[in-house]
Write a sequence for this structure.
């Protein structure tokens, strides 16, 4: 009888981990899909052809995911000729370590929500049309 209890507990634990991981992956997908419509210029159709719900976001152009939990670890959209603004939902990518969007035509402000990216170690935004002050929330990111 003890083996059945252990088996049941392990099965429940596995199911719980699966559900939590799936929910967190949905958060990453939501953040990326909120980021996409803020791109108003995609002359080479990099995102238009590739970033869709029919494909795992870990296979999207410019996205790197961790192998263990399939969470977004890297966002590299440099030199793609993209234009638009940075969506505040980008702050939902809680495992993001690297964000490289340099050499594009992003404009507007850097969202305060980027201060939630506690894992962020690298950020490259040069050669865009961003304006305004750098959010003070970025100053709290210890790994930058």
């Amino acid at each position: 009888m003890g083996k059945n209890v252990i088996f049941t507990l392990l099965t429940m634990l596995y199911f719980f981990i699966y559900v939590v991981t799936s929910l967190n992956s949905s958060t990453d997908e939501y953040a990326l899909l909120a980021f996409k419509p803020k791109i108003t210029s995609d002359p080479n159709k990099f995102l238009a052809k590739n970033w869709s719900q029919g494909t795992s976001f870990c296979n999207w152009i410019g996205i790197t995911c961790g192998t263990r939990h399939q969470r977004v670890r890297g966002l590299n959209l440099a030199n793609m000729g993209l234009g638009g603004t940075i969506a505040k939902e980008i702050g939902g990518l809680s495992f993001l370590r690297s964000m490289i969007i340099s050499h594009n035509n992003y404009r507007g402000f850097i969202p305060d929500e980027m201060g939630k990216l506690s894992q962020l170690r690298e950020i490259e935004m040069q050669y865009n049309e961003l304006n305004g002050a750098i959010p003070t929330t970025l100053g709290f990111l210890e790994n930058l």
Remarks:
- The chain is about 25% helix and 15% strand.
- The first strand starts at residue 39 and ends at 41.
- The helical segments are 2-35, 46-50.
- Residues 16-23 have pLDDT under 50 and may be disordered.
